[in-house]
Amino acid sequence: MIIRRHRRVSELGIALLTAAALLSGCAKDRGDNHDAPRIIDTGNSGGTKVDSSLTESKARDRLNAYLLESLQGLPPSVGYSIASDNQYLGNMHTPSLTVPCDDHGNGSEVLQLSYWVVGVPAGQNAQYFDLIRNAWTARGWALQQDADSRWAPVHTPDGYALVLQYAPAQDHSLSVTASSPCFPKAAESTAAPLPTEIKRP
């Protein structure tokens, strides 16, 4: 699935929710690989793939693991937090939510997590944007073709997606939104509370 950019937004919360709603991480069928997730096509969903073995709890664990993994190789001061370093931006609006996988009402959901990138030295957002994006692609996460110096969506081999972008106002702080593949709505659960911070151990 291609993640669409959103250039005209008035609030970061709207930008993240809109981008996140399109991060359905549509995984591809892996053929005869018996260790791969079981992917089903719901038929009326316009090609959307739903991982019948995935639950909200498993998706959250995987997203947390990917976010932690993506910090490896970065300076130890850098991390993810629902609270911005910029006091005017405050806490991330709706840092965790599930939304329908598409507009077809096929009973599938996708989980999104959103964080501010914190610990970036003042005036170095551009350098750290490149550093984080390059750390992602060095792990083999595929960068979408229309990415640019302010918006970098990547896809993991197993259908998860992460987007690094600038806030549209204030000091252009960086944020990251991560999304799972689609899973059945029946697999929603009361997952463990979202970590307020993700930092390297």
Which terms would index this structure?
single chain, 201 residues, alpha+beta, nine-stranded antiparallel sheet, two-stranded antiparallel ribbon
Task: Explain what this protein looks like in three dimensions.
- The protein is of the alpha+beta class.
- It has three helices and eleven strands; from the N terminus they run αββαβββαββββββ.
- Strands 3, 4, 5, 6, 7, 8, 9, 10 and 11 form a nine-stranded antiparallel β-sheet that branches. The protein has a two-stranded antiparallel ribbon with strand order 1-2.
- Strand 1 and strand 2 form a beta hairpin.
- The longest helix has 14 residues, at 56-69.
- The chain is globular and about 45 Å long.
How many individual β-strands?
11
Low-confidence stretches: 6-46
How large, in whole angstroms, is the Cα Rg? 16 Å
Q: Indicate the proportion of strand residues.
A: 15-25%
Largest sheet: 9 strands, antiparallel
Mean pLDDT: 77
**SSE series:** HEEHEEEHEEEEEE
Helix content: 10-25%
Given the C-alpha coordinates, what overall shape results? Answer: globular
Number of helices: 3
Topology:
Layout: H1 12-21, E1 39-41, E2 49-51, H2 56-69, E3 79-81, E4 96-100, E5 108-118, H3 125-138, E6 142-143, E7 151-155, E8 161-166, E9 174-179, E10 183-184, E11 197-198
Antiparallel strand pairs: 1-2, 3-5, 3-11, 4-5, 5-9, 5-10, 6-7, 7-8, 8-9
